Amino acid sequence: MATTASLPAGIPETHPAVAIVAVRAPLQIISVPTQAPGVGEVLVHVLWTSSTPLDLHKADGGLLVTPGKPTVQGGSFAGTVAALGPTDPTLPIPHRQLQIGDKVFGFAHRSEREAGFQTYLTTSAYMLSKLPPNLTLSQAVAVPTNLITALHTITNDLGLPLPWPVPATGWTPPSAIADKAILVWGAASSVGFYTLQVFRHWGYRNIIAVASAKHHDELRKLGAGACFDYHTPNVAEQILAHAAQRSDDQPRIPFIIDCIGSRDGSLRPLTRIAERVSKLAVMLPVIDVHASADVQPKYEMDMGRVLAGEWAEGVELIGTRTHNFLDNTFFRDYLQTEIVPTLLEQGVIQPNKLRVVEGKTLLERAQNALNLLRERAPSGEKLVWRVADEE
Ligand SMILES: NC(=O)c1ccc[n+]([C@@H]2O[C@H](COP(=O)([O-])OP(=O)(O)OC[C@H]3O[C@@H](n4cnc5c(N)ncnc54)[C@H](OP(=O)(O)O)[C@@H]3O)[C@@H](O)[C@H]2O)c1
User: Fold this and answer.
1) Domain ends where: 323, 342, 362?
2) 3-state secondary structure (DSSP) of residue 283
3) DSSP letter string over 310-341?
4) 110 falls within a domain
5) Looking at residue 4, what is its pLDDT?
6) Which pLDDT score is estimated for 6?
7) How many CB atoms lie within 10 A of CB 178?
8) Which InterPro entries does this UniProt record tie to the protein (predicted)?
9) Dist CA 360 CA 91 (whole Å)
């Protein structure tokens, strides 16, 4: 969107941003112009961000990165409103609800101007949530990316209803689906953690969770009716034995979300679980080879090429792409402005457990977070770190 205003006094013309400069090269700080907000936009002073595996897929795998050009990263942010552009009269929830100084957070991914690993970003007002009074900015920044992933995957990919607002009298899924088995593989991941909480809130009752045994007590509290450990060699057979054998020709587990997308770690066992007409939504990219200090990763974006020939006939494989959630105009208008902050304020959704990544500088914190992702250190937690040093 074209810039229509100049920057207010006190806002720097340029600011530091963390950039990928080459695949698997150390991150660098570059100086980028601070962009005045256009119509319907907001300038945010970024105080906190979170790191996700996508940052590693970009840095080590070159995913969504233009070769030869520094790429500013970061899909989530939390900070304060520094400037407001003119109101966009076409939107039902414009930024007239925001004021300079408001504490906000969000998930944005469309361009580098709205990336989170920089001290100022410019984005649309509908990409922002106001901070609820019961949370800090560092807690809030752990939420939007994967709560939005959960809401998008369940509605868009599995086609299961999550009505909003939830009627005051309560809502339960239609009886034909309320008790169907839903498998959440990788329930201790950030995606899985929010997925379980969403299913619990909307009354889906037959949730099967797969995670390391150390997480099972917590996952039961979040609504998992049964938990299985993916380290057990016959975990797929255990899960199928648990799922009720039906007399009709329905699959034993009609809905599956693979929150991990690992070819060998999650998808190969799922070839033994998914049956004809099971819907299986998979977090892209599929990881053929995980990045490490010595090994370059390999990814696959085309589900048709993943374990081809190993799936039962009629399994519906869906590659999840949360970056498309704005195609749903209801989500564009209400997801970040209303749904995410309301669920948090009501205590329906608890933020991930935090792991605060330390470092003396912006660059050090960003690099330390990336190194932790490479080491596969996060386990039932979200990496969050400070962006701007000053409030
Ligand atoms: N395409 C999309 O729209 C989209 C959106 C969001 C995320 N993603 C992708 O989804 C993946 C997960 O993201 P995230 O942020 O949720 O990751 P995360 O929280 O960092 O994932 C770490 C967790 O993964 C679990 N895990 C690792 N291997 C597993 C396996 N084989 N089976 C079950 N659990 C396993 C570990 O569980 P334990 O602690 O139990 O060992 C750990 O707690 C990433 O690749 C990300 O890029 C894609």
Assistant:
1) 323
2) strand
3) -SPTT-EEEEE-GGGGGGSHHHHHHIIIIIHH
4) yes
5) 47
6) 84
7) 13
8) ADH-like_N, ER, GroES-like_sf, NAD(P)-bd_dom_sf, Trans-enoyl_RdTase-like
9) 41
Q: Give the closest residue (by CA) to ligand 1 atom 39.
A: 379
Among the three residues 304, 323, 342, which one is the final residue of a domain in this structure? 323
Q: Which residue has the higher pLDDT, 150 or 250?
A: 150
Cβ–Cβ < 8 Å for 285, 242: no
Residues 155 and 297 in one domain: yes
Is residue 356 in a domain? yes
Q: d(Cα 190, Cα 353) in Å, to the nearest integer?
A: 9
Provide the CATH number for the domain around residue 120: 3.90.180.10
CA 87 from centre of chain = 28
pLDDT tens-digit map of 153-168: 999 999 999 999 998 8
Are 136 and 40 contained in the same domain? yes
Residues 6+ apart with CB under 8 A from 242: 208, 226, 228
DSSP class of 383: E
- The pLDDT of 278-297, averaged and rounded, is 96
Using CA atoms, how far apart are residues 372 and 365, in angstroms rounded to an integer?
11
User: Is the model's pLDDT at 390 over the cut of 90?
Assistant: no
380 CB within 6 A, ligand 1? yes
The CATH number of whichever domain residue 152 belongs to comes to 3.40.50.720
Instruction: Point out the ligand 1 atom lying closest to the alpha carbon of residue 383.
Output: 20
Does residue 266 line the site of ligand 1, with CB under 6 A? yes
Q: Does residue 209 share a domain with residue 255?
A: yes
242-283: pLDDT as tens digits: 997 665 678 999 999 999 999 999 999 999 999 999 999 999
**Does 104 share its domain with 155?**
no
Q: Is the CB of 230 under 6 A from ligand 1?
A: yes
Of all protein residues, whose CA lies closest to atom 17 belonging to ligand 1?
Answer: 189
Residue 342 lies in a domain: no
- The whole-number pLDDT of residue 250 equals 84
Q: Name the strand (E) or helix (H) holding 14.
A: strand 14-20
* 186 and 297 share one domain: yes
Read off the pLDDT of residues 210-233 as tens digits, 9 standing for 90 and up.
Answer: 999 999 999 999 999 999 999 999
Domain range for residue 373?
14-143+351-386
pLDDT at 193 over 80: yes
In the chain, how many domains are there? 2
Q: Which amino acid is at 4?
A: T
Q: Is residue 41 a part of any domain in this protein?
A: yes
**Same domain, residue pair 180 and 278:** yes
